[in-house]
Design goal:
Length: 213
């Protein structure tokens, strides 16, 4: 059995979810502003007090988990609370993933200063997270659903933040519940920056629905 999609919470009207997505975007902008601010200490303390009050207001009604996967108004699977693609998750870039007509997936990515690893460059763990997700989406685009079993990365060149790069992934081969997937993050001219290969496993409990037995 596949995990059931969560029944929508009564308060999850589309207008509220759209408002939450706007709030999440402001929270992303806030994290960038925090990472880059150079205002004096007194101003930092004043902003901190205002933020603490806002955190309390949002916490007045609090769930135990972010938005769970559901089917959006366009009839497509979505996961608004996901750390990579979730519109209502401030941690998400959020990545917008297209399915390519020739197979596989593609996403334009612009990393931000909050993704800093080596000075001035993107953290390798952040690019690994993005590639993990892209590989998983390529598996889903091929008509399967699976979890990462192994993920192997080759960091060829550092990724600059602030400049657009491109992520791609496509399924290589399948064998029973196993799906091998390759992907990369590259410059727009195709120069590879990080290459990934992963083995994704369809959990035995999902196999009947996903693979027909
Ligand atoms: C993640 C999606 C959730 C949403 C689901 C709903 C709908 C899906 C639709 C769309 C989704 C769209 C996009 C998804 C996007 C992103 C994906 C993000 C991916 C992640 O971020 S996901 C988190 C990290 N991931 C884990 O948290 C996995 C933890 N783990 C487990 O949950 C189990 O461990 C599991 C399921 C891996 C296997 O469990 P199992 O019981 O089903 O399989 P079993 O043990 O029977 O092994 C069968 C054969 O696979 C081999 N095998 C097993 N495990 C292996 C491994 N790790 N490496 C190499 N080979 C392995 C065995 O050696 C055997 O091989 P053999 O048959 O040859 O002997």
């Amino acid at each position: 059995m596949m995990p059931d999609l969560a029944p929508p919470q009564e308060s999850d009207g589309e207008a509220r979810l759209a408002a939450l997505a706007v709030l999440a975007q402001h929270a992303r902008d806030l994290t960038d502003a925090v990472a880059l601010t150079d205002v004096p200490e007194r101003e930092l303390r004043a902003v901190t007090a205002e933020l603490a009050a806002l955190t309390d207001r949002l916490g007045a009604a609090r769930r135990t988990a972010p938005a769970q996967p559901d089917i959006g108004p366009d009839g497509r699977f979505r996961h608004l609370g996901n750390a990579v693609v979730g519109d209502t998750n401030p941690h998400a870039l959020p990545l917008v993933i297209e399915r390519r007509p020739e197979g596989g997936v593609r996403a334009g990515i612009t990393f931000r200063p909050v993704h800093e690893g080596p000075p001035g460059l993107v953290h390798g763990g952040v690019s690994a997270m993005i590639l993990d997700h892209l590989l998983g989406e390529a598996v889903a685009a091929s008509g399967r659903a699976a979890m990462t079993g192994t993920l192997s990365l080759r960091y060829r060149k550092p990724i600059p933040y602030g400049t657009p790069v491109v992520g791609t992934a496509a399924v290589g081969r399948t064998e029973g519940r196993k799906t091998w997937v390759d992907g990369m993050i590259a410059l727009p001219d195709g120069t590879p920056l990080v290459e990934a290969t992963g083995l994704f496993i369809t959990p035995s409990q999902w196999a009947e629905v996903v693979l027909g037995g």
